[in-house]
Amino acid sequence: MQDALIRLTAHWAAHGCLVGQPMNTEVGAGTLNPNTALRVLGPEPWRVAYVEPSVRPDDSRYGDNPNRLQTHTQFQVVLKPEPGDAQELYLGSLAALGVDLRAHDVRFVEDDWASPALGAWGLGWEVWLDGLEITQFTYFQQSGGIALDPVSVEITYGMERILMALQGVSHFKDIAYAPGISYGEAFGQAEYEMSRYYLDDADIAANRGLFETYAAEARRMLDARLPVPAHSCVLKCSHAFNVLDARGAIGTAERARAFARMRGLAHEVAALWVERRAELGHPLGDATVLQVALEKSVLPEIAAPAAFALEIGVEELPPGEVRPAAEAVAERLRDGLEEAGLLTDASEVEAFSTPRRLIVVVRDVEPRSPDTEEVVKGPRLAAAYDASGEPTRALLGFARGQGVDAADVRKVTVGGKEYAAHVRKVAGKPAAHVLSGLLPEIVSGLRAGKNMRWNLPGLSFARPVRRVLALLGHRQIVLDELNQGRMTDVHRAAEPSRVPVPDALSLIGVLREHGIEPDPARRRARIVEDARDLAARHGGTVDVAAEQDLIEEIVDLVEEPVAILGSFDAAYLDLPEAVLTTVMRKHQRYLPVRGRSGGLLPHFVTVANGECDRDVVRAGNEAVVRARYEDAAFFFRQDLRRTPDEIRRGLDRLTFTERLGSMADRSARIAAIAAGVADRAGLGGNERTVLARAAALAKFDLASSMVIELPGLAGTMAREYARRAGEDAAVADALYEMELPRSAGDALPATAAGAVLAAADRLDLLAGLFAAGAAPTGGSDPFGLRRAALGLTAVLRAVPRLAPLTVGEGLAIAARHQPVEVPPDALTEAERFTARRLEQSLLDEGLPIPVVRAVRPLAGAPARAARAASDLVGLLRTDEFARLTTALQRVLRIVPEGTEAGYDPALFAEPAEGRLAEAFARLRDGLAPRPALPEFASAAAGLPGPIDAYFDDVMVMDRDPRLRANRLGLLAAIRDLVEPLLDWREIGQDARSASTR
User: What is the pTM assigned to this prediction?
Assistant: First the structure.
């Protein structure tokens, strides 16, 4: 290991890095060393590389776990400003360590990083070596709450992982640290004793005192304007907190206060560091990059239609951004070329994409855009000539401004009015000139869900754009700063890694010749075919339908899919299947292999990116999954030593929010809310007994080791642990079902107890967080309230037993159990928020927009709203309902807002008034409470005639105020009867047309 550290140091020193020193106090990561945390701030350039022993008390395992250490070794590199080729420099460092890049599968896999405590975040990847995460690679965007300019690259190597992979050992203790000395021999005693200290022996009172002392000292150093010692004190304060946390001594309120305190100090340190460096005159210089122009395009004209190819070269995009970005580029290019008149009926626009490139190929681009006429409007015609027909001064001035004679001015009509105008011919532009203006707009307009900056001002995208290749036929369109000749990049490990492209139509073929498949559909077909074939050789299969989402992700993780079958010890099949598949799918992107009966086999399919030594890559991935399953088995055994009630006690240590308490507090609230919901739903007997026990254990598995490690298993592990502890099967099922649905289209609770808990869980989230001022804003939804509202409406729609409960009633029940005051407007907003999620769900199901808007009054009862929407689609196709709608809309239009319902038959002066009152009374008295829409429509079929006669024969707005009020009161009574059913104003011709399509 020491040789690896020496080699990395030499590699980065050769690329201009200062060799830094580790921090002289405990830090949880190399990021916290001032060589990173402070030096990334401000405009000064900085390149540094250093070893950082990273101390994480909560990862203490007494040296028993093969992959978890309380002190592990990081090698940290910071490049400021980011140099544009950081990935290539990094791959060179792996080669320096002896990694054969052609034999191994080295990949950059999306992994964004954030540290709210530091006010820091960045976008980047975790780097995989044959499936093993060995490095965190991040483009820093913010630190200490300060946006970074210039942007820095942070590269953090996990040395133990790298050396375990390179040396082929399965436990960190077996790493050869130096000749004749293993890692365990060098550090095993320290690992055990420090684990003992952090988990068992650290004095809680002493560490509380240290926390307070160092926090106060940091404050004093800030007041003295000394950011470096202040930063050191914040680090010591943070370590004292981590020790207390590992000892289980941090309560919910204390955790929130401590985080806020440390975050505030860290932000002040960052701001003071920036000030001090400015006061010192930025001794290392200013690396801020100035704005540059992207476009300098020169290209001769072409004489005949030609193909055009655009390739935007990027660093590895997140899988979810690959195809949408390519389609957006294709659409923008198509629109621009169509607007310029450069496309014909023979033109074709095709989009291709891989993680490293967005490609559009256009066939038959016209040589130049057509000539056009441009009308320049001058003065009104009446003001352009005098009474004798001579040009006025206004017309002469206009003609002079256009450089023409007044006699050449023509008459035009615009908006029905006549003007003097100059009509001039505008010559068409060569295709290359149109493209040279369009391409920079396309590149600079790239956007994604999360965008970052890099060392090219004016651009912002999911990952850096590094090059642009634009070919019109065999000619090149040059974009300065991004153009790298007529070349395209192929695999990084290829020799050469960059190859020429002779012309636009050759681009796709050139890529395929060099092992890159730019068509996602072809990559998908290859993955499916090869995975099935590999599985079949071992008597298994891959369930393509069940793994569809994962396959789509893999398609956009690789440029050349190479499927490899791996295996693991069959003994791990004793773990719950969900544990095994979660590790395979979520962590490793492996396709599980199943037998004929559907059960898991001890095999998986991994998909490498490009040709490699398959035996080497297989062995690496098998080692990774073995380590992950060993971790899972460790957590599973640890959890099974405790009962669900014992595990639940750990919820006290898990913070929900500062104002809403711990997860234990939330669990208790869910139980209380569930009881109220059960009362409303009429649960009793055994169902109530099951609910009570499940509610007492609500969320207990969040405190289990397995779910802390794999949060996606919440609910799944609750059911597993409950069953193994001897709980009633119905209780175990309810604990699982309370987490359903996890996403749109997911399974829904099948039992009454599970449905009540699921509803109570989401009602608590909505009522509590809206009261605490944590409602979603824009794209920020840290507590998943949108998902919670969708889940609540899905459960209320799907479970008939919950039909009596409205969203408003449920929120009111939840509000009574919150630890904070829940203002009425917070509940109102939460109900509106939930109604909007229901609307979106109905729209996603294909219901017409006017229909969804019309059922808004029913949104508080999601099942009723959904049923009404479906019924309304059918009713809108009938003439009878159209007549009823028209009649009711006449009523609603004439009644002023605020008019009270009520009338006196003695004041009726016209027969039509009495007939309408009789028809209304029959309808009102014959309706059941909360009637279904078809039931109402049938009962109200006799109402349109009396309404029409009423408006024909009766002067509603009579001069006599008593008659006018009585007539409006009758109409208001009709309004009050029908308004709770639908928003009738939304049912117009658009709704009827949409429902007939």
Answer: 0.85
